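[audit] Reproducing an earlier prediction to check determinism. Same input, same settings, fresh worker. If the tokens differ from the archived copy the diff job will pick it up downstream; this log only records the rerun itself.
[audit] input (349 residues):
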Amino acid sequence: MYELVGAIHIHSVFSDGSGEIKEITGYANETGLDYIILTDHNTLRALHEGYEGWHGKTLLLVGCEINDKENKNHLLALNINEAYSTRLPAKEYTRLVKETGGLGFLAHPHEKRNSMKEHPPYPWVEWDTDDFTGIEIWNHMSVWMEGLTDQNKYNFFIHPLKSISMPPKDTLDKWDELSLKRRVVGIGGVDAHAHKVNLLGFFEVEVFPYKVLFKSIRTHILVDNKLNPSEDKEEFLKAKSNLYSSLLNGRCFISNYYHGDAKGFRFFAEDGNQIYQMGDLIPHTNQIKLKVTLPNVSGTIKFLKNGNVVSSIDGFDAEYTVSEKGAYRVEVCINNNAWIFSNHIRIGL
């Protein structure tokens, strides 16, 4: 399989971001991203104006972030051709995204922050639906703002990457719970806006430039065929379909690039001569082994079953023999910092 490394959840001048498309894709090329997914609020203007496609070595795909009339229930809607009305209930636009062949990911679902009245939380509260594809388990801007206080705000602004420690526990717990019933794909998001703020009336500074956030939370997608930059429309459509198919099937993992380049990480299951990947549902047998390899670095590899750690190994690789049914995933820490979060392999469920 081929690994694509990219950033999801990005805003441009077409909503509340400060960057033009050419500027954003330029930073994506500079930071070595294979793809980026633009998700402006309630608009597909970038798609309709023809920006979707290859920009240098980076594939730009266009979705949008939909919310309801109360500005809650934010959904990252990908692979769609229509931005649905904010007057619709969350269950309705989530259903429409799925029925039209799109992918829907709950954005920053457990926001709770109350330290800034001008920036209230935007949680997902409509859990009575199974029509979403997955959950944004780690959102850079959301986690950053959640931890912001008057005491640490200067340190947080100076070290925007260092201050992102872990995905919200509530989100991980909900993800594990839902994965016992069906495949729920976990992704990471940067939520990049590159807001520009005027300081003291003298000069303007950019808060969290795109180039900085492209070095934080990344989603690695494993695809069957290598994607080659091409101006040919058919080749582009194949690349788009390949990427979204793998994302739909959970062939992905999330990393924090600040703590190291996770490209090359692998988590899979072996049952005799059969290999299974993240996102798969497989029958339970007595000979299934879960295997992990890290990319030329030693870390603490944790195997989790239904959200609980069942094994922890320090090293470059690890193996775990499955004895019970469950939803299994992996977390990797490096130097005691959260680094990699795999998607589930569901066994016997």
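[audit] rerun output stored. Observation attached for the diff report: The radius of gyration is 20 Å.
[audit] end
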